[in-house]
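Risk register update: the risk of archive-format incompatibility is retired. Evidence:
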Amino acid sequence: MSPKKEQFLEEGFRWFGPADPVPLAFIRQSGAESVFTSLHEIPYGAPWPEAAVAARRRLVENAGLRWAAVESVPVSEAVRTRSGPFARHIENYRATLRALAAQGVRLVIYNFMPVLDWIRTDLRFRLPDGSACLRYDPAQFAAFEIGLLKRPGAERDYTPDQLARARAFLASLNESRRAAFERSIIDVFPGCSLGLGLPDIRRMIDAYRDITPDGLREHLRLFLQAVAPVAQECGLRLAIHPDDPPFPVLGLPRIASNLSDFLKILSWHDGDANGVCFCTGSLGASPDNDLPAMLDALAHRVFVAHLRSTQREPGGAFHESGHLEGSVPMFAIVRRLLALQHQRLAAGGPRLLFRPDHGRDMADDLDKPPPPNPGYAFIGRMKGLAELRGLQAGILGSQSAAA
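Archived output:
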């Protein structure tokens, strides 16, 4: 007997709003039940009007889907650095949580990564089969930091081999490719373009000159102290996304990269509103992270999962692999998530939500202009969703046969 639908994890799909080249109709055809979306048009730090939230909810529901998660309500740089209008931004964040709750949205994903969001150095790295994926190469990032950004002291963060490869990479770029490389690193914020230039990045980095890792942790603690009670009151859950990549970049602290980091974060607000978005691709980029052990330790506060895999390479590079390939033990992760969901369902809770994260550019998506949101072309993510659905069916079917 085939497993029942309610035994499977709830399938979600990221959607970047009406301007997304992947329409909601395609997402529904993929078999997904829910979407992760955000009001990307609203500036960071501004409140979300309830009317705008209601309009987005209706748009999703009219397509036969559910708005299951906000990804994300961005945390502004003012809040991260506790400078400028940070107090107003925190109050606006609280107002946004209330507006979301009033419209029945119950899960908010956020991150606390300084200056840049996730970082890659190649947005269309060609693989042997002809498909393309996202890749991070520390030597190429050194080329950006030292040759373009000119961050003082950046050389100290790299090995001699990485510095040599950085110089060779930079020398291989003509003027137009150099400009494209620069934009690919500093202007890939999810769902929007902030129009930042190198002077903006330098100014933003300078705002952290006196902020240590413990200092940034304290800023996150104070942020949670201000917003988590509102989320708790409204029945909302906040899920912090891991740093991507999960190690320091730009000479800045990263405070959501490993198990110790997350245990600290969860200790700051002991309530149902404070939890984790378990992103296997982000965490899996570090060989120091034992993902199954992390999931076991954090299970009580894992509110949502991003499932993808990264293939670690020698020398610190990594690229996005197929969802069932690479360095992430996806079978062990999915088996644990299904067991966790079974426990929650038995206690009267909801199904556990996930989405396939990132995907290769493949098939006729390769003939289209590069997607405005790198890693989020349709076919590669649909393939990943189908693979993860099949993995669940195999696990559930084998468990049923053994019972």
